[in-house]
Amino acid sequence: MDLHHLRTFVAVAEENHLTRAAERLFVSQPAVSSHIKALEGELGVVLFHRTPKGMILSREGEKLLGRVRRILDDAESLLGAARNMSGDLNGQITLGINTDSVFIRLVEISALMRRDYPGITMSLVNSNSWEIVRDVRRGVLDAGFAYGEISEEGLQATVLARIPFRVVGPAAWAARLESAGWPEIAAMPWVWMAHNCPFLDILDRKFSELGQHPQKRIEADHESILRALVLAGEGVTLMREDEALDGRERGQFAVWPGERLGLPLSFVCREARKVEPVLGAVRDVVASVWECASCP
Known about the structure:
Elements: H1 3-15, H2 18-25, H3 29-43, E1 48-51, E2 54-57, H4 59-86, E3 91-97, H5 101-104, H6 106-116, E4 120-126, H7 129-138, E5 143-147, E6 155-170, H8 174-178, H9 182-187, E7 189-193, H10 198-210, E8 215-220, H11 223-231, E9 237-240, H12 241-249, E10 253-255, E11 261-270, H13 277-294
Parallel strand pairs: 3-4, 3-5, 7-8
Antiparallel strand pairs: 1-2, 5-11, 6-9, 6-10, 6-11
Helix pairs in contact: 1-2, 1-3, 1-4, 2-3, 6-13
Keywords: DNA-binding, Transcription, Transcription regulation
InterPro entries: LysR_HTH_N, LysR_subst-bd, WH-like_DNA-bd_sf, WH_DNA-bd_sf
Pfam families: HTH_1, LysR_substrate
């Protein structure tokens, strides 16, 4: 049984679309169709129903999907163990970056990798936390940085730090924010976060606890857009404390003196791949840099 065919099956099942699966796997659409047809022939079952809305798993496909994922995980684990025996630490790894490079400490990480593991090349991809978690799970990324509580089966999240966040608004709103409590904060116009954003999780929990309903003026899906909209006077939002305080010093933002909220920042990879020496080397360097940064 060809592992490429199994990977194609998982990609089509997750994307529900031949073209998107082909783009994800960097192969042609006919190749994807050929892999699925060959796998269906080998297994003797229909794996998908082709519909106007895309490729829908058949009942048999649904039952087999979990087993196929476990087979691929086992294959990756076997390959990692073999590489570990050989001591080969040459290779490339693709990392998802969820925020600015200075905060993630990419310069320090890169310098340490270059010194200790010159045979490993890193490829960096900017993305959102939830997309990084999704793409690590799907195998599109080898690993990545992500905010939020990550407890998905099959993923390993190494918590690097708990990051404080603050409510911020336009600089002209300083007096309003200074005297506000949570009810007043909820009543202000909010530059809200897109679905799946970890910021959204902590705000939803907080407002739910308080029985408050925030006034959502506009929604955005990236930290840089949130910042720009607050600067433009559109409303309040949630921002990393270091950025919030720096923006206040520059006269760009007003920072609410009330409650700080926190989110873990983690380095995420697939559980089955944690034994791979190249991935393990990168994870250890990242953890080392963040440990040193937290030392007094």
